[in-house]
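Before relying on records like the one below, remember that each one covers exactly one chain. Contacts with other chains, cofactors or solvent are not represented anywhere in the record.
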Amino acid sequence: VQLVESGGGLVQAGGSLRLSCAASGNIFSINAMGWYRQAPGKQRELVAAITSGGSTNYADSVKGRFTISRDNAKNTVYLQMNSLKSEDAAIYYCNATVYRDPYTYFEVWGQGTLVTVSS
């Protein structure tokens, strides 16, 4: 199973970006999916997460600006980022809890996509 992210890039402060992450491989089902980020010199932190039922959770720093969503039929999770700030600049990583059968699950990480915000 692998996660492939896309959508990162350079954006001006106040602008928007949409990240996508598609899971592929031997997948029975996917439970939670989420986005984490890591800025230089900082620890990786949770940005947003969404369950298979659509319940969401956001870091306080992005509430009201970022929206996480998913398409279960496509095994894809999205992160719409609006009103971007310089402090949002980081490498964004996709994460998923993947079941390969009804009883066996594991955590998968994407390779990361860089988001750069210019002031």
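Residues 1 and 26 are 6 Å apart (CA to CA).
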